[in-house]
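Sample entry (137 residues):
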Amino acid sequence: MKYLVMVQGTQADYEGMRGKASGRAPAWNETELQAMYAYMGAISDDLSESGELVDAQGLTDPAQTRLVARGPDGKAVITDGPYSETKELMAGYWVVDCASLERVTEIAERVTRCPGPDGLTEYPVVIRRIQDDARDL
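Predicted structure, serialized as tokens:
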């Protein structure tokens, strides 16, 4: 079964990774940043070796986001991000093909142990099964 494993973050978190602390996120130093990338890379490497990795990507910060919706008049309403009403957005993901919900939960639990600076917000890792066909509804 395929699952989407989502890591969450905010614009403040991305700014923190650039070394800009705020009341919402601590500043990362280069050592902490490299440790985080190495940790996440090791997860991807292990999933690749086990044959469970389908895809994995980090996403750019919310400031580089665009929201496209249909307005009441039926015309497109386009808004640049980030959005003040948005709390967390997907910061990165893995698509894995593994045997069970229990196995993907083990993977997500490992993701939660990613190193970072003191004061880092601990976001939950979200798991969603990818629908195979309409019968999965």
